[in-house]
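It is worth pausing here to work through a concrete case rather than discussing structure prediction in the abstract. The textbook approach is simple: state the sequence, then state the predicted structure, then interpret. We follow exactly that order.
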Amino acid sequence: MPHRNVVSWTSLISSYAYHGFLRTSFALFTDMLESNVNPNTHTFSIMIRECTTSCLSVMGIQIHCLIMKFGLEKDEFLGSALVDFYLKVWNSIDEAFLVFDGLWRRDQVTWNVLISGFADARGVGEVLRLFHEMRVVDELRPNDFTFTSLLKCCSLIIEVEQIFGLTMKYGMDGDVVVGSGLVDMFGKCGNMDLVRGVFDSMEVKDIFVWSSIIASYVRNGSPEQAFTLFIRMCRQGVKPDQHVLSSVLRACAESDNLESGVQVHAQMIKNAYQADCFVGSALMSLYANSKELCSVEKLFRRIENKDIVAWNCMLLCYAQMEELATFYSISLFRELCQSNTLKPDTATIVALITSCRNVLDLAVGIQIHGLIMKLHLGRETSIGNAVINMYSNCGSVLDACKAFDDIVHKDEISWSSIIGSYMQSEIELEAVNLCKEMLAEGIYFTNFSLPLCIAASAKLAAIDLGKQFHPFFVKLGLEGDNFVGSSIVDMYSKCGNVEASQKAFKELEEPNEVSFNAMISGFARQGNATKAIELFQKMEKMGLVPNGVTFIALLSACSHMGLVEDSLALFNVMCQKYNIEPEPEHYACLVDVLGRAGRLEEAYCIIENDGSVLAWKTLLSACRNYENAKMAEKCATKVMQLDPTDHSSYVLLSNLYSREGKWKEASKLRQKLVNVGGKKDLGSSWLM
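Step two, the predicted structure:
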């Protein structure tokens, strides 16, 4: 071109800037100035927006100086670009407001840019003040961008309701953009009635509106409603995007609905999102919750550009495996470390160390802990808590204590974890002392830590200590928490105060199976089978389903009172009505009550094929009481087969032989006990 004017230069600069050639566009701008062609407002706006997009703070200041040199700083078109630059690059509301205040005329775009910046940095009060000035001073009508900016700064339901009122005043409540923002904000505030009201009033619904309402129902604990809306959306011909699909998959995971999740998976494939990392991670979580590990692995390998969330999700799946969890977790972690694009984060380390869950994993757990110390992550609270749990699960309470001491900022989970570790190792007194230290540090009890402290009191039979923990149940507003309430019921019953246990049980707002089990067990310890059975019947009337623990308590209570027929009836109810597979404790209780009544043959028939060591030992003890040497020999032989090192069977049968004058047989049994390395446990007492 022999003659280039400002339009020619600006067109070429704009083209290079549009296609991402930043250096070339700035070089052309410099050439334009050297050619004595003065830039216009459009040229400067392109350069300022490039500085904003690329966060070129110094270059943006230089462009601003040139704008002032050419006397264009008061132009409204350039003013919007400069306000946006100072807000986004310099995070300076003051500088942005100076530019805004110096403009000859402020249009709707300029006001929206300023309001949006204030919404990100200031409170709703200042934003509403600007909104008022926009309408009154410059007499401008707000549009959809204005209202979405106002909604960004809201944090309370009353503020969202005020904005909602303004949208209705200007007739914008039915706008698809504003409606989507209102649905999202009302959902975040938990008011689903208003969410549904706004949604139903909208004539046109785009994918963003559907995404907002589905996410709102998932967020507020209504996964079934979210899935129903998803079906309705698909029937109306709206194609789901990755946000909708991930929300619906979360809904399926929360409702444990794998069948619906498979249908969403089909929609995911149909709409070409099978390789999308965002949706893939959500689908992996769904299959992981349903223990479909093979499906999770296939999904993980099919994701093209895996982010760290997908890797962490796969690690968590391996960590939850019953066997070879550490092997697969370590292998995947090594694979992650070999990739040059991603680095492990805190969640990665937590997922990795979660795979160590028993004594056999301790060596691997120590190595992971060494890596954590090497990376200087041991002082981080979340990682420290995971290390405590790992050592606790692996049976190393001393190492758990060291990991606890290494944490700089100990939260409630840290204290609960170490207290739980001591409880798991049956060091109840130290657990109680830690409870007191926790309170001294200003950390209050929660619905997890308080039951641990109450359980420690129960184990120590320290009712006075338990009474001190009881007031926290009310003080912390946990009356509706059955888990904490059940621990109080259990504590009083184990300490022998059944009256206090009953009172605590009656104070529960909605007792569940755990609460009833605790109270029934309390009556069982007292030997009051009548009340235990009455409470069981009340439990059934309330529609609560008993479990194996319930029947252990009931059979134990009946055993103490010698209620043979009631025991047999309850055992049949357990097996036939509730389809509960009998455990060793159930057989032991049933054998005990039959043995006390002298019905040894009947007890023998019950456990002949399914008996455990505990049941056979119980029957052996009954045989000794009734001096039935013939059956005692059968029971002792069975116990010796199942557990050769158990001394009780040898001693009981030997004593029975001695009582009948069979000294030779008694001597052989005692010698056999010595040969297998068995010995009688030493007695112990709290009084010594």
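Step three, interpretation. Residues 556 and 589 are 6 Å apart (CA to CA). The mean pLDDT is 87.
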